[in-house]
């Protein structure tokens, strides 16, 4: 099977020739891997790791100029600002958000004075051609995350307070976000001309031990836009990839009823995210993506621990199909190269399905 055939079979909860393999990692990890392995191009890394890579494509930004800043500070099209934050004694750097454009908004009028991004700020004309560059791979395009962007506009703490204390302001901001994501996705899917296979309708509702918001808040504030964004994707023949960190089991029945197709990243160390239980209860309606532990095993385990972890993922989530193996989030720079290679080499050999079962 081609990587595309393998991935799309798993996404449809079927059983390909083997469990597909995907890759999420920080830029530092990718650079180090390529150096350690003597590789020049990302495609060579895909081949070495046996990846059935899900390839992202998207439109080109042509909107208003984004302000420039000094000192490593960057700003995005939303007006969110970030500063470099080293970690792990300098082994890696994240861009940490420190400015939230609507943090001081108190009224609907304040929200209306903000310059909301527009789908007009993007050139979608090359999307289909970009899809054609990867004929053997599944294509992912689009990223809609209403809760996450609400957090990023207001700040996490204030956004959570808003949902409880200021429904009018919350609903007004979320209406703008939902409308932007819907229009952006509409144009993106039309420009893809049937060549897009997956899109993200995604968020981060989970913490380590439970949800950040209640189920009633999810239903009040987010279900409407989830439904219309997921329906839009399905009407275009596109499957919905849902990334959601942490302990999210409580909201899974709602997400499934709204139509998500793929669940990532499966952080099984979090409360309620037991792999066997997820497969038993939801495997008939979901494809699972990720799950190899990178909170402990990948960075701190021996290669034998990594091999055992891969085998556990294959036996629990991979049974009967409907599973794409990868790390349960971005591989971090403190992860040894040997452990990364072990993960993919073991999965390649032991993730093959027999013809009869």
Structural features:
about 350 residues, alpha/beta, TIM Barrel, three-stranded antiparallel β-sheet, 15 helices, 12 strands
Task: Please provide a written account of the structure.
The chain is an alpha/beta fold and 357 residues long. The chain has a single domain, classed as TIM Barrel. Helices cover 42% and strands 15% of the residues. It contains 15 helices and 12 strands. The chain has helices at 3-11, 27-37, 42-48, 108-113, 127-132, 146-154, 156-165, 167-192, 215-221, 223-235, 252-258, 275-282, 297-300, 303-316, 337-350; strands spanning 55-57, 60-61, 74-75, 81-87, 92-99, 122-123, 139-144, 198-201, 239-243, 262-264, 287-292, 323-327. It has a 7-stranded parallel beta sheet with strand order 1-7-8-9-10-11-12, with helices on both faces. The protein has a 3-stranded antiparallel beta sheet with strand order 3-4-5, with no helix packed on it. The protein has a two-stranded antiparallel ribbon with strand order 2-6. Strand 4 (81-87) and strand 5 (92-99) form a beta hairpin. Helix 6 (146-154) packs across helix 7 and helix 6 (146-154) packs across helix 8 (167-192). The longest helix has 26 residues, at 167-192. The two termini are 18 Å apart.
């Amino acid at each position: 099977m081609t990587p595309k055939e393998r991935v799309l079979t798993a996404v449809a909860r079927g059983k390909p020739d083997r469990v597909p393999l995907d890759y999420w990692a920080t830029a530092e990890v990718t650079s180090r891997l390529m150096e350690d392995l003597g590789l020049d191009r990302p495609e060579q890394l895909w081949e070495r790791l046996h990846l059935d890579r899900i390839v992202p494509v998207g439109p080109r930004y042509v909107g208003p100029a984004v302000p420039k800043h000094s000192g490593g500070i960057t700003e995005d099209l939303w007006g969110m600002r970030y500063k470099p934050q080293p970690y792990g004694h300098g082994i890696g750097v994240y861009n940490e958000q420190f400015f939230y454009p609507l943090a001081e908004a108190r009224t609907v009028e304040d929200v209306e004075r903000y310059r909301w991004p527009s789908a007009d700020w993007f050139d979608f004309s090359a999307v289909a051609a970009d899809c054609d560059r990867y004929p053997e791979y599944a294509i992912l395009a689009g990223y809609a995350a209403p809760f996450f962007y609400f957090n990023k506009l207001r700040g996490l703490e204030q956004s959570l307070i808003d949902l409880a204390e200021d429904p009018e302001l919350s609903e007004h901001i979320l209406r703008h976000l939902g409308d932007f994501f819907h229009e952006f996705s509409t144009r993106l899917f039309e420009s893809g001309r049937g060549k897009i296979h997956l899109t993200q309708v995604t968020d981060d509702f989970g913490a380590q031990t439970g949800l950040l918001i209640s189920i009633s808040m999810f239903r009040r504030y987010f279900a409407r836009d989830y439904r219309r964004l997921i329906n839009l994707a399905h009407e275009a023949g596109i499957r919905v990839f849902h990334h959601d960190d942490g302990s999210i089991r409580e909201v899974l029945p709602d997400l499934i009823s709204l139509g998500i197709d793929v669940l990532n990243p499966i952080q099984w160390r979090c409360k309620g995210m037991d792999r066997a239980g997820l497969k038993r209860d939801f495997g008939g309606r979901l494809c699972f993506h990720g799950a190899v532990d990178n909170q402990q095993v990948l960075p701190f385990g021996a290669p034998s621990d990594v091999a055992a972890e891969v085998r556990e993922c294959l036996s629990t989530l991979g049974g009967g199909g409907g599973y794409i193996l990868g790390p349960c989030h971005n591989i971090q720079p403190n992860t040894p190269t040997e452990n990364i290679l072990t993960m993919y080499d073991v999965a390649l050999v032991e993730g093959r399905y027999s013809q009869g079962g």
